Each structure stands twice: as C-alpha cells, then as structure tokens.
Amino acid sequence: MGMAEASSEGSTKAGRTTGGASAIDTSTAHPARVYDYWLGGKDNFAADREAGEQALLAYPQLAEAVQSNRAFLARAVRYLTGEAAIRQFLDIGTGIPAANNTHQVAQHEAPDSRIVYVDNDPIVLAHARALLKSTPQGACDYIEADLRSPEAILAEAARTLDFGKPVALMLLAVLQFIADNEDPYALVSRLMAALPSGSYLVVSHPTDDFNPNRQGESIQRYNERVADQATLRGHDETERFFAGLNIVAPGVVAVAEWRPDSDLDTARPSSMWCGVARKP
Ligand SMILES: C[S@@+](CC[C@H](N)C(=O)[O-])C[C@H]1O[C@@H](n2cnc3c(N)ncnc32)[C@H](O)[C@@H]1O
Question: What is the pLDDT of residues 123-146, one digit of tens each?
Fold first, then answer.
C-alpha cells in the first residue's frame, strides 16, 4: 500500500497531505466506521450500521463496552504522561477521531508530547486534520500504513519521534485484525525491538470472554459483513503480547478494571482485555 502522510509541528504548520490515499469504499462495512457507529459517531454508512446492528443483536452490551475501551485509552495515556513520564506515542489503528484521542489526552497532561498516528483505512486519513491539532510545544503526525509493515511505519514515524528516547506503542482494538497465521506476536516484537529501554506497550484486545450470552454469534455476524475479519483472543493470548516486558499492575484485566478512576468505571461492561507494560 502506498503511504500518505500529514503532519503538524506545534502550531506553526498546517496539516499537510501527500501521496495518493486509496479510495473509500462505502458499499462494504469497514471496522473503523462500524466502531464509529458503536461510539455514536456520524462517520458511518448503511453497510457499517447494518454490520454494527447485527453484532449488537447478539451482544447488546457491545456499544457500552467500546466506550470502556475509550476510557481505558484515556486512563492509560494519563498514566504514561504522569507516572511513567512518557512524551512520545506511536498509536497504530487510530480509528476515526472520537472524544479524547491520544494527543488530546497526552498534550492536556504534557503539552510537549509528540504523537504519531497510523491507520490503514483511508477514511481515517480523511479526518486527519482533527488528529493534527497539536499544541505549539508538541507535535502530531499521521501516516496511512498497515500494521503488517512495522519497518515502514518506524521509518516514517522517525520524522516526528526520537527513537533514542522512550516511546509508548499504542495498539488498542487493532490486533484482532491480524490473523493467527500472520503472526501478530512477531509484528509487536518487531515494533518493540526498535524502541529503547523504558518504552511502553499498551494493548487492548477484543474477546468473547465477557459476553454473557450467545458467545461466538456476534463476531460471526460481524465477520460475515466487514472487509477485514477479526479474531477474538482470550486472556492468555492477550498476555502473550507482553512477553519479555514488565507488566504494570494490575496486569492483563478487563478494560473497565484497569486502574479505574471510580466505581462507575468498573461498573461498565467490557468486551476487551488490556494491559500496559514497560520494556526493561
Ligand atoms: C476498532 S478501531 C480502534 C480505534 C482506537 N484504537 C480505539 O481503540 O478506540 C480499529 C482501527 O484499526 C484500523 N486497522 C485495522 N487493521 C489495521 C491494520 N492492519 N493496520 C493499521 N490499522 C488497522 C482500522 O481502520 C480502525 O481504524
């Protein structure tokens, strides 16, 4: 896939887009737009809404559960900018901009934070302007690329991130799109290998483990309709992504249970496992 980039350095540069973005296909459901539908966004089409509704029929808690994933994203980024003093983020599988995107949370806490967003769906590139509103002290960049090409992502990200300093690699609700036979674990290892000691890995991963009824049916309905098939994974399969890293307490848990701010967080449903770990 050709890469298209857009970037914003502080407040001095407007967003720029180069390269040819691939066409947006609205006739088939796409994961970024189905997710946008579940989150109550407006950037989805009839095919996306149909796939989203079909999945919800078999798993009605799913729409609220994806909100728990967004809340986890915000808590993890606040932990990273605060306790972990991280100032660089590589967020792969960004999604259509929603409330509290990584740069907004990070730069609210630490205005000098530098963020590189990566997604392979051209609809996300079309919304990149919203992802590039950096603080003057920090920087934001957007790369249209595929997680299956880690070295290409790293080469492009080096324009904005200093790989001599710690980076938080954010892989939230994206690894399910890498099938077992494409070795998602090796892709994560290749990305982490390029980051120095003190870097972090943040993962959230969809599962059927918390689905109270009709397990398997929701993902089947979804996969019958979307362009990219998703593979659900369990606790131990999610934990394997952190092999060789020091996992931060409380370990791999439901997204609603990772360092909750209040009992309200924990009371919400989860449809994903998550964890945060530090590279020794
Ligand atoms: C479910 S959304 C998650 C958005 C956000 N990370 C979050 O957790 O709220 C998944 C995103 O990953 C993107 N994606 C799927 N497969 C990908 C791949 N192989 N490489 C890069 N991005 C991918 C989709 O286009 C979509 O925007």
Answer: 999 998 888 999 999 999 999 999
